[in-house]
Design a protein that fits this description.
29% of the residues lie in helices and 18% in strands.
Length: 179
């Protein structure tokens, strides 16, 4: 099974990252395109952008981005945008479109606050105590979002995975900024 097929097969799973890891262990699909809409594999020198929403992703007292903003990394994939393939105007439009979708679903308290960024190389360098990589970064472009990528966490003990999600959060800026 090639990587594009592995991603398609895992797309409807509640644990997409785990399914991909089972089929292609050790981040085996990072060097290949996993989407026909992709501009190519994500390289280490790229910067990825995470969109941040209130009240879900920020501490109401400090305004700092919380670990909750990165919880999707453990199962369905942390949705990010590849900075080299998207403009600031596109990021704002994506953020407002998602907020409007949430509003239509009755989640009217949400607000798009901006973004936080990190370099892909630093994400890929995070390892568990065993030396196994904790995160994979895949070019999971969508037809309408060619800059889309996913960060997936590899499997380890639940406590180790939680510690690594905190480390992932620490790689990104603490405060969201509007693009």
């Amino acid at each position: 099974m090639d990587c594009e097929e592995a991603f398609k097969e895992a797309a409807n799973s509640n644990n997409r990252c785990g399914r991909i890891g089972e089929r292609k262990p050790e981040c085996g699909c990072e060097t290949e395109s996993v989407s026909p809409d992709s501009p190519g594999p994500v390289v280490g020198s790229e910067t990825v952008v995470r969109l941040i929403y209130s009240p879900l992703h920020v501490d109401p007292v400090t305004g700092d981005v919380t670990e909750a903003a990165f919880s999707d990394v453990k199962d369905k994939g942390l949705s990010v945008q590849r900075e080299a393939h998207v403009t600031s105007a596109n990021i704002r439009a994506i953020g407002e479109q998602k907020r409007a979708q949430d509003d239509a679903l009755g989640k009217k308290d949400r607000q798009f606050l901006g973004t936080v960024v990190a370099e892909v190389r630093t994400i890929r360098e995070v390892t568990y105590d065993s030396g196994t990589r904790a995160f994979c970064v895949y070019d999971s472009a969508l037809p309408s979002l060619q800059a889309h990528a996913d960060v997936c966490q590899t499997t380890c003990s639940p406590s180790a995975m939680k510690r690594m999600r905190k480390r992932l959060r620490d790689l990104f800026q603490r405060k969201p900024k509007m693009p």
